[in-house]
Here is the input.
Amino acid sequence: MGRTEDGSARGVVVTGGAQGIGRAVSARFHDEGFGVVILDVDGELADQTAKELTTDRGRVVAVTGDVTKREDLRGAITACVERFRGLDAFVAVAGIAIGAPFLRVSDADWLRVVDVNVNGVFRSIQEAASVMASDRGGAIVVMTSTNAIHVEQNLAAYNTSKGAEVSLVRSAAIDLAKLGIRVNAVAPGVVRTRGAEWLTNDPELGPKFLARTPLGRFAEPEDVADAVYFLASPAARYITGQTLTVDGGCTLGDVYEDREAASPFLLAP
Here is the structure.
């Protein structure tokens, strides 16, 4: 998938690609031979990441920008088209969360989260699809979250934005299918990133969370990147409008150490 018939690199834009899940996604596509354009608000970190990931297998370039600004998205897409002769995939990872008890959520914080997470994804899909439509089609993958269906307290704006992203992906998928463009989402649970250290590194909260996670561990950024790459690859050529949950099973239901004591409906082994 990483090379065209003439051997040139295919191109992908990754928003929020400088760190965490975004960095892992950028690295995954680079490893598959893609030319990667990272769009991130932290220009210095994006430059550093691009330098660290670039090898003789391919190029990773950085563009400083904000997904709330169409001109920044267009700049990243244009850079991808000019450097790598097209936009074959687009991955929308950039997002923010602002926590507060429901009655204390300010208009400013609500609107900021929605503008980045929902409007930013809308702009991203629209700008990417506009270029893909005039080319050979393409794949768009949006980073949503298990918070879309399994909400957490004090995160009303974030929970709502992630639910909206799922509906947005489905809406875009049904409208863009006739143009040869597939749109899907990945919904991670807790991933070992800087933003989740408050849980993954906590000696009490961490084990409690893992006790109700069937696979018994937190996700690594690479686990999520693999799912993203699958949905963007030809292996998922008949999949569109779907959300792939990557959470180790933690949203499946309750997990009990003593299953016989937990429910009278369980049969003896």
Summary: Residues 11-247 form a domain with the Rossmann fold fold (CATH 3.40.50.720). The longest helix spans residues 107-133. Residues 261-269 have pLDDT under 50 and may be disordered.
